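Sample intake sheet
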Amino acid sequence: MLWAMPALVLPLAPALALESAPVTSPRVTATLVTDADAMQPGQPFRVGLYLRMADGWHTYWKNPGDAGAAPTLDIEGGTGSAIDWPTPRRLAEGPVMTYGYTDRVLLPVTVTARTGAIRAHAQWLVCKDICIPEEGDFALTLPVGPPKPSVQAPLFAAHDRAVPRASPWMTRIAPDGTLVVQGPELTPRTVTDAWFIPDQPGRILDGAAQPLSVRRGFFTLSLKPAPGFNARANLSGVLSVRDRSGLQSDVMIDAKPGPAPVPALPPLGQVLIFAFLGGLILNLMPCVFPILAMKAVALALHGGRGHAHSLSYTLGVLVTFMALAAGLLAARAAGTAAGWGFQFSSPVFVAAMTWLLFAVGLNLSGVFQVGSGLIGTGSGLAGRHGVAGSFFTGLLAVLVATPCTAPFMGVAVAAGLAAPPVVTLLVFAVMGLGLASPYVALASIPGLARVMPKPGRWMEMLKQALAFPMYGAAVWLLWVVSQEAGPTGVLATAAGLVLIGFAGWVLGASQMASTHPRRFGQAAAGVAVLTALAILSGLSAAPVGAATATAEAGTEAFSPQRLAALRAEGRPVFVDMTAAWCVTCLVNERVALSTDAVKQAFAAGGVTYMKGDWTRQDPAITDFLRQNGRDGVPLYVFYPAHGGQQVVLPQILTESQVLDMLRPS
């Protein structure tokens, strides 16, 4: 924001009736006005600074917000009260949020004087593309006599209607910044939007979004505390509430410290059902299907008699799900933002998964067989046909499943992580049972051995064909690395792929040799793998890819400040929370959000499309996810025009769902 030199103080202007001579600039016309046409000595009356601003210019409230300065009005010839401030507007100025007035505003004070000769000095700051301080001296002379409403009295009446009223509701502010507003008339049917403006600077982050949650009898606003926030002190300011008809009520509140309401969680039985269904549907996601197909081949190899294998596979799935749940709980206890798929925000983990899937593909292609040596530890165990292979296939299935999100999973994961740790572990265990259930069912159906095809060369061909989905997944993960760690990360991961490929080749070649060459081959493979691990250790320091920092054509990069500004302007907004490693997100973008019909509907409705990239788990996006009851991506939220109630869309999108959302109800 640019600042110009202060405007010159204009000379004292002669009084004209009950409105002073104006102080003018290309930006503002300022006068001093009164609500009475006469005065009685010692009796109070009101005078006010009346600012009429040119198009696009604005001035500020008593708390200007992130920038600006409040107007002042000093009275001479009498005693003046503090300014009686009308309700301000929220004004977005680039990345900052300010509070103030546009067009015109009256800032009155109550005066008690012995004579009708009133002099005043005022200062105000006006801003557009630049900010310019202005000031002026004013004079008014009121005759002594019985007062009657002046010609300017309607200005004061309009001002009185714009002043926030005393609040009829009980309010409290929680230590985490949650503002709780209680009243019997506050329900989801009556409250569509609300926001809070503090009357003192430095208490909250003014530009942060204020997510609204309405329940019967109360609602909450999730404020972001600023460094000046005191959890043991009251928080006062203007609360604005908009109802379904669009009527806005502005009240002054003085919230006392108190606890935040306990989150309303779905019943445990419903959460567990959602967890099982989410895990079950996860088998149909592109992340997991190749793994399930690989185990189906193994089941056919055993003629359908795979009870031990199915139990081992299920155990691998459950152990990995429980480990993920424990990792999430530990990360959250340490204050780290973590949700479903959190490990994919690390380029080290993504690179390691790239190498592991590439090694599994090499094993399926027959480059090497399962045996001793480092290269066989992950890929070999997953590709072998024994019980241990089933266990590690279950482990691999869970690891590759985390970039995908299935229906029902969002509610289950969010509710599980909001519950006590024991419930969190139970929810993740049930999700694992859902993921493992198709393979268990295949192994448990009576008579399956009679309908399964007989083992033969077709199985070896199918096994080799299944290597290509693994290679494809490795290529996709290499792209994810490019989004997270840039060209340096891609180079490091590609070098690791060469080393893993060499390790697989030399291990496979040595398996057909005698004892001494075999040991040499195993040692060479081990050195190659250790070299790759050394590369992996330095990958975390690679710079973030530039692709994550730029918005795509037709979209805006998400920021809480920009979202709050757009909502304050009454504009419709569609928020898309995604990540480079989220397969579900990428599919939704291709089939439901990037079609010509949806683009045209967004343009016709004036919808701002905001996209948040959670690839590296941006804390602002993590906060937004949690405020909307989610702990992972994708998340799609639509904010209708004029402050309508937000709509959270399903995690699996279709074009028709998006178009139906945009149609007026």
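Comment: The chain is about 40% helix and 25% strand. The CA atoms of residues 207 and 561 lie 4 Å apart.
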